[in-house]
Amino acid sequence: MGVTVDVHEVFKYPIEQVVASFLRKYPNPMDKNVICVKIVEEKKDVSTGIIYRKRIAVCQNVVPEILRKRIAVCQNVVPEILRKVNILKVPNVQLEEESWFNPQERNMAIRSHCLTWTQYASMKEESVFRESIENPNWTESIQKGRISITGAGFLNCVLETFASTFLRQGAQKGIRIMEMLLKEQCGAPLAE
């Protein structure tokens, strides 16, 4: 089945400032779930000017402790299905993010996916930063995420519902962090 989350935001700052803040967003005390972010590849296409980056984020496992405890208790009752979700007990989750920043066209495309739990879950996100139609000095952000859980039987729906709520809250928290960073580093937003 799967769940999707769509988030749209306009930052009243130029794209160059938004991209710079995005790349510095984590780790951040406002979101303690992101432990670290490492750049594993970065290159610039000299013919197009496009800057490609691949980063790996290490995040705390956010599956609620109570859900993990219930799974552990229930393993005696329904061991076959619940044994499959033992993987939920890992302390950290890794995400891979790839981005393509085109300074000439003033846009950045971002794709990310989860490297952990791949046999039971698919988490993918696609985002775009682009010049706003309303004002060329503003930046429009569009995020689309999808999570699909398989192999956990009746728990698929429960885990997807939790994931949907967590993703929506995480996206909103990410926007607040970006706004704070932009204000700290660039001053007040640009007026209309």
TrEMBL record:
InterPro entries: PRELI/MSF1_dom (IPR006797), Slowmo/Ups (IPR037365). Coiled coil: none annotated. Residues 1-190 form the PRELI/MSF1 domain. PANTHER family: MSF1/PX19 RELATED. It comes from the Eukaryota. This is PRELI domain-containing protein 2 isoform X1. The gene is LOC102991995. GO terms for cellular component: mitochondrial intermembrane space. It comes from Physeter macrocephalus (Sperm whale).
